[in-house]
Design a protein that fits this description.
four-stranded mixed beta sheet; single chain; alpha/beta; GMP Synthetase, Chain A, domain 3; 50% helix; 9 helices
Length: 221
């Protein structure tokens, strides 16, 4: 089952105040869902915004990024989301410092491992996950889930309808946040609590799955 992040306290980091000021309010802090939802020219969904903030907070708390890095990465990720494209802060953070594709891939692996170690249950790294079959039926029946997965670049590696799922990514905190959203979605729709696991990918496997599932190239110019 998905692991919840360890509680790091309520104190906001320097960059969080700026990010939180842009979070759209929601009633009772419930996950935001919209009929035929599209983020183009609209606000970023609260669930995505919060997942981004917590990821950046963990990066800063563990010395993986500065406040300036976090602000820069947040702007790039949100810009992609608002144009309807998928994005991940770990990918952008690695691009800020990497001088080559080899350094970029290695940086992502290092960051991904360190973030995974902050979870109460460390997700297993599965190098062959990119070879798994895309759950097209799940995406077609649940367009809200497909959209969240595509924007956060968290593919569903395995699915038995909404009963048993496995999420895959380089970003443990995005997987954790999406797991909670899917659980709420399944409870509202079917009245059942799904079993959701999370598995960690290396960069090559993540890139392969994102292209296969969302028809989007991971790399940016």
């Amino acid at each position: 089952m998905s692991a919840r992040p360890q509680d790091q306290g309520d104190e906001e980091l320097p960059f969080e105040q700026d990010l939180l000021s842009n979070v759209a309010p929601s009633s009772a802090d419930e996950p935001v869902r919209r009929e035929s939802f599209s983020v183009v020219n609209q606000d970023v969904p609260v669930a995505l915004e919060h997942a981004l903030i917590r990821t950046l907070a963990m990066l800063q708390q563990h010395g993986l990024a500065t406040a300036e890095d976090c602000n820069q990465v947040a702007k790039m990720v949100k810009s992609d989301w608002l144009s309807g494209k998928g994005a991940d802060p770990i990918d952008y953070l690695a691009k800020l410092s990497a001088g080559s594709s080899e350094m970029h891939d290695a940086s992502i692996e290092t960051i991904s491992i360190k973030l995974a170690e902050t979870l109460s249950f460390i997700p297993t790294r599965v190098p062959f996950a990119g070879k798994l079959i895309k759950p097209a039926a799940l995406y077609e029946k649940n367009p809200d889930i497909e959209l969240m997965c595509r924007l956060m670049r968290v593919p569903v590696a395995y699915a038995e309808d909404l009963d048993v799922l496995a999420l895959a990514s380089i970003n443990p905190y995005f997987m954790d946040a999406l797991s909670a959203e899917i659980s709420s979605y399944a409870m509202e729709r079917n009245g059942t609590q799904p079993i959701i696991s999370i598995i960690r990918l290396d960069y090559a496997g993540w890139e392969t799955m994102c292209i296969k599932h969302f028809r989007e190239e991971v790399r940016h110019d």
